[in-house]
What we know:
Layout: H1 2-16, E1 32-33, E2 40-41, H2 45-139
Antiparallel strand pairs: 1-2
Amino acid sequence: MYGQTQQRNEHPKLEQNGLCEAPLPIPEGLYQLNQGQGRPNHPDGRANHAAQLEAKTSADLVITQKREINRLQSTVDGLTNQVAEYRSAVESLQGKLKEAYGGIQSKNEAMKELVAQRDEFVKKLNDSVKERNDVRREVQ
């Protein structure tokens, strides 16, 4: 009984995910309980055989669905692992990118400092050339 209850509870989930079709209705009177016996009342042997075939088909369907669920779960697990690997790779690359950006920033600062020093030395050179030219004009 517990297994059938579990199957009935799983069926709407599987149906919603498109993994199985809607259940077929059970013919009226096929499974009515006899008073006092507690057993299903089967109108005749053909109904009993039909019920057995339906039970076998249902059992086969459950097995097929469980296999499909297991296959999908393993696919989900594999994809989850891939996502974790990609996240790890992204974090690693972001760290390297920040490190490279920091290196570029420090090189830019060093270049600015070198440019400033160069400008200062060019100005001093120009000033000394001008001063020398002024001295030459005074001497002449």
